[in-house]
Amino acid sequence: MSKVAAAKSPSPLRAFWLKWRFHINVLLLLVPLGFMPKYFADAALFRGDTGIGERVAGEVKVGPWSLTLAEFRNEGPRPDPAGPMKFFNAALCDTCADQVKATYLRIGKPRSLRAAGVIFFGTPYRMGAALPVPERTPADAELWVTMEGWDGTLHQGFIPLSQASPATIAWLNKQGVKP
Amino acid sequence: MTLMRLTRACAALMLCAGFSTVALAHNPMCECKEIAGEQIQCTGGFSDGSGAPGVTLDVIGYDETILVPGKLGQDSTLTFKKPSAEFYVLFDAGPGHVVEIDQADIQPQ
What is the annotated signal peptide range for this record (chain B) (predicted)? Predict the structure, then answer.
């Protein structure tokens, strides 16, 4: 008996794989198609084609000025080494865009301008801020906006957290009350 | 064998795709704890793992008077005597880059 004849013939599945593997690999091109809807939705969100955020919370009146506040994503805070972070976007009112120097966001009323919270980055038409959300934040907390004008004036306004981000309230309720 | 290699490559690719959206921010962080001798030790840093030597850390009373003006040392820590008045700690790395720690949130020894 020759050596070739003695070799064990491959299983039908293995034979199919050996014969068609090159052609089957074309199917890999279909994999990115599954990710495309999310990719284009994210691209539109980042470009601002779908507005300033996934969910517009509303207008916050801050003295003579105002801003439109939106949740960047309609979800609870994301984990971060510095604690859970919630991303908000905002757009200043048309008339105040060139009057406001800085905009800050904080949970609860700020004690001072130094402790006014996180600062918004970006253009007046689309700014973003990552707000730390302590796990023991009460569900009836308020989101305070502090605006500093180029002329040195300061104005404050607030919006209930439940209105600004129902997803964050749901997240807090899920966490339970922390001491 | 080939199938296994292909599966592994696909898994690695998907893992990379999953992590690609993670934002690389560096938010300020500060932690304070009570240590022996009625003292409080605060450690500052940033969420990207970097330290904060030389960054301002003030201990401020509820009446907004600065009780202990300080800067973090080379080891990104600052130790100070616990004030008798009500206070909070403000890690101040610049406007909008602050961390406030109320005295109630400082873990006792």
Answer: 1-25
